[in-house]
Amino acid sequence: MEVLSLLDHHSNTKIDSHFRIVIIGVQRAKQLLQGAPTTCQKPFAKETSRAVYEVLEGDVEFVVGTEARLFKEASEHAKAQAAEIQPLEVAATPPTTKTREAPAEKK
Questions:
Q1: Is 92 inside a domain boundary?
Q2: How far apart are CA 49 and CA 3, in angstroms?
Q3: Per the CB 3.0–4.6 Å rule, which of 3, 52, 63, 72 could disulfide with 25?
Q4: Is residue 100 part of a domain?
Q5: How far apart are the first and last CA of the chain?
Q6: Based on C-alpha coordinates, what's the Rg of the chain?
Q7: In this predicted model, what pLDDT tens digit does every residue of 17-34 receive, in sequence order?
């Protein structure tokens, strides 16, 4: 059975289209490929199929609409603050000076 055909059998109110399944499935597949633990025990040949199945089963948490926008804005704000702090930390380290070695004496 095709994994996307499972949409008709699930009544998850957040999933409103096949496109949302694909978008969330891609993000979950990236997590699985980077070593995230799987939430289902069914054998799948591909990580993308496993990811879509987990999304349809409701094992993957995601946000949509206003929640997603707020989360994105908060994430961007945190990154901007981290970028502002980082140069200060680099400037706080004392500069290193190189000393020249004396030339070796010839015999």
A1: no
A2: 7
A3: 52
A4: no
A5: 85
A6: 25
A7: 778 888 888 999 999 999
Distance CA(38)–CA(53), nearest Å, equals 11
The identity of residue 94, as a single letter, is P
> Which pair of tokens denotes residue 21?
């399944």
Stated pTM of the model: 0.57
Range of the domain at 58: 3-62
Instruction: Give the model confidence (pLDDT) of 28-75 as tens digits.
Output: 999 999 998 888 888 888 888 888 888 888 888 888 778 888 888 988
- Which residue in this structure is represented by tokens 């990154």? 79
Does residue 96 sit within a domain?
no
Number of domains composing the chain? 1
- Domain-located, residue 36: yes
